[in-house]
Amino acid sequence: MIRINLLPHREEKRKARRQQFALFAALTALVGLVIWFVGHTIIAGYLDGQEAKNAFLKDEIATLDKEIIEIKGLREQAEALLSRKQVIESLQINRTETVQLFNELARQMPEGVYLKALKQSGLKINLIGYAQSNARVSSLMRNLEASPHLEHADLVEVKAAMLNNRRVSEFNLNVSIERASAADANQPPGKIPAGGKP
Protein backbone atom coordinates (compact mmCIF):
# COMPACT_ATOMS: atom_id res chain seq x y z
CA MET A 1 0.00 0.00 0.00
CA ILE A 2 1.28 3.34 -1.02
CA ARG A 3 1.07 6.16 1.49
CA ILE A 4 0.66 9.70 0.19
CA ASN A 5 1.51 12.58 2.46
CA LEU A 6 -1.11 15.33 1.92
CA LEU A 7 0.08 17.58 4.76
CA PRO A 8 2.18 19.98 2.67
CA HIS A 9 -0.70 20.37 0.22
CA ARG A 10 -3.15 21.17 3.02
CA GLU A 11 -0.68 23.62 4.52
CA GLU A 12 -0.36 25.42 1.19
CA LYS A 13 -4.16 25.66 0.89
CA ARG A 14 -4.38 27.12 4.40
CA LYS A 15 -1.63 29.57 3.59
CA ALA A 16 -3.42 30.59 0.38
CA ARG A 17 -6.71 31.00 2.29
CA ARG A 18 -4.96 33.14 4.90
CA GLN A 19 -3.47 35.30 2.17
CA GLN A 20 -6.88 35.61 0.48
CA PHE A 21 -8.48 36.52 3.81
CA ALA A 22 -5.78 39.12 4.56
CA LEU A 23 -6.12 40.52 1.05
CA PHE A 24 -9.92 40.59 1.33
CA ALA A 25 -9.70 42.24 4.80
CA ALA A 26 -7.24 44.85 3.47
CA LEU A 27 -9.44 45.44 0.44
CA THR A 28 -12.54 45.78 2.65
CA ALA A 29 -10.68 48.18 4.97
CA LEU A 30 -9.52 50.18 1.95
CA VAL A 31 -13.04 50.33 0.49
CA GLY A 32 -14.40 51.34 3.90
CA LEU A 33 -11.73 54.03 4.20
CA VAL A 34 -12.56 55.34 0.70
CA ILE A 35 -16.29 55.38 1.51
CA TRP A 36 -15.61 57.20 4.82
CA PHE A 37 -13.35 59.71 3.06
CA VAL A 38 -15.90 60.37 0.30
CA GLY A 39 -18.74 60.68 2.84
CA HIS A 40 -16.67 62.95 5.06
CA THR A 41 -15.74 65.13 2.08
CA ILE A 42 -19.36 65.40 0.93
CA ILE A 43 -20.63 66.19 4.43
CA ALA A 44 -17.82 68.73 4.98
CA GLY A 45 -18.75 70.32 1.63
CA TYR A 46 -22.40 70.51 2.71
CA LEU A 47 -21.38 72.00 6.07
CA ASP A 48 -19.12 74.56 4.41
CA GLY A 49 -21.90 75.47 1.99
CA GLN A 50 -24.41 75.79 4.83
CA GLU A 51 -21.98 77.91 6.86
CA ALA A 52 -21.45 80.15 3.83
CA LYS A 53 -25.24 80.46 3.45
CA ASN A 54 -25.60 81.23 7.15
CA ALA A 55 -22.87 83.90 6.96
CA PHE A 56 -24.58 85.40 3.89
CA LEU A 57 -27.95 85.42 5.68
CA LYS A 58 -26.39 87.05 8.76
CA ASP A 59 -24.87 89.79 6.59
CA GLU A 60 -28.18 90.34 4.80
CA ILE A 61 -30.08 90.43 8.12
CA ALA A 62 -27.60 93.00 9.48
CA THR A 63 -28.07 95.07 6.29
CA LEU A 64 -31.86 94.82 6.61
CA ASP A 65 -31.69 95.83 10.29
CA LYS A 66 -29.73 98.95 9.30
CA GLU A 67 -32.27 99.71 6.56
CA ILE A 68 -35.14 99.23 9.04
CA ILE A 69 -33.49 101.69 11.44
CA GLU A 70 -33.06 104.16 8.56
CA ILE A 71 -36.71 103.68 7.53
CA LYS A 72 -37.83 104.31 11.13
CA GLY A 73 -35.75 107.49 11.17
CA LEU A 74 -37.25 108.59 7.85
CA ARG A 75 -40.74 107.79 9.14
CA GLU A 76 -40.16 109.90 12.25
CA GLN A 77 -38.85 112.73 10.07
CA ALA A 78 -41.88 112.41 7.80
CA GLU A 79 -44.25 112.51 10.80
CA ALA A 80 -42.43 115.55 12.21
CA LEU A 81 -42.64 117.30 8.83
CA LEU A 82 -46.32 116.37 8.54
CA SER A 83 -47.09 117.79 11.99
CA ARG A 84 -45.18 120.99 11.07
CA LYS A 85 -47.12 121.18 7.82
CA GLN A 86 -50.40 120.83 9.72
CA VAL A 87 -49.36 123.59 12.15
CA ILE A 88 -48.40 125.83 9.23
CA GLU A 89 -51.71 125.08 7.46
CA SER A 90 -53.59 125.83 10.68
CA LEU A 91 -51.73 129.13 11.05
CA GLN A 92 -52.34 129.89 7.37
CA ILE A 93 -56.08 129.29 7.78
CA ASN A 94 -56.34 131.35 10.97
CA ARG A 95 -53.75 134.04 10.21
CA THR A 96 -56.35 136.78 9.81
CA GLU A 97 -58.30 135.72 12.89
CA THR A 98 -56.96 138.46 15.18
CA VAL A 99 -57.68 141.20 12.67
CA GLN A 100 -61.18 139.82 12.08
CA LEU A 101 -61.72 139.59 15.83
CA PHE A 102 -60.85 143.23 16.47
CA ASN A 103 -62.87 144.39 13.45
CA GLU A 104 -65.85 142.33 14.58
CA LEU A 105 -65.66 143.61 18.17
CA ALA A 106 -65.48 147.21 16.89
CA ARG A 107 -68.52 146.59 14.63
CA GLN A 108 -70.61 144.88 17.31
CA MET A 109 -69.80 147.30 20.17
CA PRO A 110 -72.93 149.39 20.87
CA GLU A 111 -72.72 153.08 21.76
CA GLY A 112 -72.05 153.70 25.45
CA VAL A 113 -69.92 150.54 25.90
CA TYR A 114 -66.14 150.33 25.94
CA LEU A 115 -63.66 147.66 26.84
CA LYS A 116 -61.13 147.81 29.65
CA ALA A 117 -59.47 144.40 29.04
CA LEU A 118 -59.55 141.59 26.50
CA LYS A 119 -57.93 138.20 27.08
CA GLN A 120 -57.86 135.26 24.65
CA SER A 121 -57.28 131.66 25.70
CA GLY A 122 -57.56 129.34 22.72
CA LEU A 123 -60.99 129.93 21.18
CA LYS A 124 -62.36 131.62 24.30
CA ILE A 125 -62.21 135.39 24.76
CA ASN A 126 -62.85 137.17 28.05
CA LEU A 127 -64.11 140.76 27.76
CA ILE A 128 -64.09 143.20 30.70
CA GLY A 129 -65.44 146.70 30.27
CA TYR A 130 -67.89 149.43 31.24
CA ALA A 131 -71.38 150.20 29.95
CA GLN A 132 -73.70 153.09 30.65
CA SER A 133 -76.44 150.61 31.62
CA ASN A 134 -77.28 146.92 31.86
CA ALA A 135 -79.38 147.29 28.71
CA ARG A 136 -76.21 148.20 26.78
CA VAL A 137 -74.53 145.00 28.08
CA SER A 138 -77.55 142.99 26.85
CA SER A 139 -77.32 144.73 23.49
CA LEU A 140 -73.61 143.87 23.27
CA MET A 141 -74.35 140.19 24.01
CA ARG A 142 -77.08 140.07 21.33
CA ASN A 143 -74.71 141.66 18.80
CA LEU A 144 -71.96 139.14 19.64
CA GLU A 145 -74.37 136.21 19.27
CA ALA A 146 -75.49 137.54 15.86
CA SER A 147 -71.88 137.87 14.64
CA PRO A 148 -70.73 135.34 12.03
CA HIS A 149 -67.29 135.11 13.70
CA LEU A 150 -68.33 134.91 17.37
CA GLU A 151 -70.67 132.65 19.34
CA HIS A 152 -71.79 131.67 22.84
CA ALA A 153 -71.70 135.04 24.61
CA ASP A 154 -71.94 134.15 28.33
CA LEU A 155 -72.19 136.82 31.00
CA VAL A 156 -69.97 136.16 34.01
CA GLU A 157 -71.04 139.17 36.10
CA VAL A 158 -72.34 142.73 35.99
CA LYS A 159 -71.82 145.07 38.90
CA ALA A 160 -72.29 148.73 39.60
CA ALA A 161 -69.15 150.85 39.59
CA MET A 162 -68.15 154.52 39.76
CA LEU A 163 -66.09 155.90 36.90
CA ASN A 164 -65.24 159.64 36.69
CA ASN A 165 -67.93 160.34 39.27
CA ARG A 166 -70.51 158.60 37.12
CA ARG A 167 -72.38 155.45 37.93
CA VAL A 168 -71.71 152.72 35.30
CA SER A 169 -72.11 148.97 34.94
CA GLU A 170 -68.88 147.00 34.96
CA PHE A 171 -69.29 143.76 33.05
CA ASN A 172 -67.32 140.57 32.57
CA LEU A 173 -68.36 138.19 29.79
CA ASN A 174 -66.95 135.32 27.75
CA VAL A 175 -67.42 134.74 24.04
CA SER A 176 -66.07 132.02 21.72
CA ILE A 177 -64.52 132.39 18.29
CA GLU A 178 -66.31 130.51 15.55
CA ARG A 179 -63.55 129.10 13.39
CA ALA A 180 -64.22 128.47 9.74
CA SER A 181 -63.51 124.98 8.46
CA ALA A 182 -60.65 124.48 5.98
CA ALA A 183 -63.18 124.23 3.11
CA ASP A 184 -64.86 127.50 4.14
CA ALA A 185 -61.50 129.21 4.61
CA ASN A 186 -60.51 128.35 1.02
CA GLN A 187 -63.67 129.87 -0.48
CA PRO A 188 -63.32 133.22 -2.23
CA PRO A 189 -64.49 136.27 -0.27
CA GLY A 190 -68.15 137.11 -0.61
CA LYS A 191 -69.20 133.49 -1.18
CA ILE A 192 -71.55 132.07 1.46
CA PRO A 193 -70.05 129.00 3.19
CA ALA A 194 -71.82 125.66 3.37
CA GLY A 195 -73.12 126.35 6.90
CA GLY A 196 -75.36 129.07 5.53
CA LYS A 197 -73.90 131.95 7.59
CA PRO A 198 -72.61 134.78 5.43
UniProtKB/TrEMBL annotation:
Keywords: Coiled coil, Membrane, Transmembrane, Transmembrane helix. InterPro entries: Extracell_DNA_Util/SecSys_Comp, PilN. The keyword Cell division does not apply. The chain crosses the membrane at residues 21-47. GO terms for biological process: type IV pilus assembly; type IV pilus-dependent motility. Residues 47-91 form a coiled coil. This is Fimbrial protein. The lineage of its organism: Bacteria, Pseudomonadati, Pseudomonadota, Betaproteobacteria, Rhodocyclales.
